[in-house]
Amino acid sequence: MRAVxxxxxxxVLAVLATGCGRSxxxxxxxxxxxFATLTAQRCSTSEAIAQHGGxxxxxxxxxxxxxxxxxxxxxxxxxxxxxxxxTGWSCTAFIGADGTSxxxxxPPGQKDPLTSPRGSPSGVTLQxxxxxxxxxxxxxxxxxxxxxxxxxxxxxxxxxxxxxxxAQETHGAGHNVVLFRDPPGVxxxxxxxxxxIAAIGGVELTDQFGNTGASAVQVTCAIRGDPxxxxxxxxxxxxxxxx
Length: 243
What we know:
Layout: H1 2-17, E1 36-42, E2 44-47, E3 59-62, E4 72-76, E5 82-86, E6 90-95, E7 101-106, E8 123-129, H2 133-140, H3 148-155, E9 169-172, E10 177-182, E11 199-206, E12 215-222, H4 227-240
Parallel strand pairs: 1-4, 2-6
Antiparallel strand pairs: 1-3, 4-5, 6-7, 7-8, 8-12, 9-10, 10-11, 11-12
Helix pairs in contact: 1-4
C-alpha cells in the first residue's frame, strides 16, 4: 500500500509540474518503484537543545528516478532529516526544543527563503511542525479548512493567513495530503513562492486526535526550468520525512 500511495503522489506531482497540462514539454512521472543514490552532506544546523546525531553516511538512497543521483545531494540536519536538492547549493537548518524543525537549501550567495523577507526565489525547503500548534494551524488552515485543529482555532477567534490565492493549483492525494503549485508571481502556500519561478510541493497533516496535538510536514521546491526534478524532490521528501 505504501508503494501505491507513493506512486499516486508522484503522478499527481508530475501533473502539477506541467502546470495542469499547459506545458509543451514531455514529462515522465516517477512511479515510486526506483531509488537514486545521492551523496549526503550535513547542513549548518542551529539547535535549541544540542542534538547528538549519529555519523552521516557518505551516500543515501531516496525514492526517486535513478538519474537524479547525478545532480542532487541529500542534505541532512543534525537529527538526520534528509532533503534532496541541487548539488552545490547552500543549506541551513534549525531544530526547536519541541521537535519542530526547518531546512532550507538555496543557491549560493542568496538568502534563506524561509527566514529572510528578501529570500531567494529559488530553493527547496522542508518544515516539520511537530509541536507548535499555532505553527501547524497557520500552515494547514488554507488547505484543510475542515481539520479539527483549524476548527478549534476558529472557535478561539483564530484567523487563517491568506495562503491560498485563486491562481494556486491544488490536488488532494489521500485524506491528509494536499499538493500545490504556485505559478510564477503568485505568493501562495509555497515557501518560497511569489517570485519568477513556479513552486510545487505538498502538505501532509496529522490532525488532532483526542488530547494528541496535530503535526504537519510541508515541502516546497522552486528550481528554474526544472519542474520534473521538483516533482521528484517533493515526492521523495514527503515519503521519507520524519513524523
